[in-house]
């Protein structure tokens, strides 16, 4: 069984290559997604599903076909690509979309768009985040071990001090879990940074308090492992979400919300998988030179070939 990689890319603009998600950051203009796909292939993934917007679907397809046309899986078979669109109108028929709504329905809604094209365990990532090869290996191993399983999912947790930005405070969801490494909650913190006294602190979104955090705390960077039964459960939760929020203009249906409902409702468990990888991305424009330097260092140390493809 080869796991599937689901890339959340609907936030990209119409010019493939115009926004930060497709910014050339590697020595040969490789993008962050290029490195994610490389790591996924090395870990044994066999298919990539992109969630995109309809208005740049054709151009996206053309660019992907050109760039990855010769990429092979570890078994020598061509890497498969599938494209699915996320639009505001893609909601159950019994609901009427508020014509004033412009904001997307969120990450959990985006994942639901792939329910008809994924039948295997799969891993969800953001298109503009670098997760590292160990993270993909850990996620792929979990997927292979859970083929045929139901009601058990996983989150890949990154150590907090491996995710901070040198350019300012960031938002991070801190994972809380029990002794069996089953997720109990993800608590959002804002303005997380290393302060002058060397202590990491952030604003707890629940209590509003500015609290100290540990560098080894595991946090969510939106890297999830799911089995296909997730789609049916999540779709039911989305309908309930719309019952209460169909006329809201800004509320979004996020993956942590769907997982929280499953955990608290007793219909799903979520394993917490710790990764030693360093996460990075271009959160601030000031982050870009540092990210370019990190890719150059990874290439220099032989972690990645150059050019990548």
Strand tally is 13
- Given as residue ranges, the uncertain stretches (5+ residues, pLDDT < 50) are 13-20
Which CATH-level-2 architecture?
Alpha-Beta Complex
Order of helices and strands: EHEHEHEEHEEEEEEHHEEH
CATH topology: Spore Coat Polysaccharide Biosynthesis Protein SpsA, Chain A
Strand content: 25-35%
Q: Can you give the mean pLDDT? A: 91
Note the gap between the termini: 25 Å
Characterize the largest beta sheet: strand count, sense, and whether it forms a barrel: 11 strands, mixed
Q: Please name the fourth-level CATH homologous superfamily.
A: Spore Coat Polysaccharide Biosynthesis Protein SpsA, Chain A
Question: What general form does the structure show?
Answer: globular
Helix content: 25-40%
The number of domains: 1
Instruction: Calculate Rg over CA atoms.
Output: 19 Å
